[in-house]
Amino acid sequence: MRLMGLDVGSKTVGVAISDPMGWTAQGIEIVKIDEANGVFGLDRIAELVKEYEVEKFVLGLPKNMDNSIGFRAEASIAYGNLLEKEFGLPVDYVDERLTTVQAEKMLINEGNVSRKKRKKVIDKLAAVILLQNYLDSQ
Asked: Under CATH, what is the fold of the domain 2-137?
């Protein structure tokens, strides 16, 4: 069963896909969206769902550090509800606090990636981390 991990922001969605056995997560791409104007990249997500035969979505839930649900977490839940309605596939949420920080540290410390290049891949790497964390917990 293939899973699609999504790191949802207001302007981009990082996308990762699990291998067919559900052991590892690989970064696929970053989908541009415009949350403020109701553009959610569903056409591209649909193409990826079909291409990879996705059976479930795993979305990052960016809780506040005190474990409460804030504006960004509510936006992620709304995006998940939109995915459920559009694709009829289940959506699971994984606590993604600090995944973007972890991704940035990996790119700086292990990859020595410049700030400009980090901006282009950070959301995709965050999607990989959150999906891998989900896979490891199953």
From this structure: Nucleotidyltransferase; domain 5 (3.30.420)
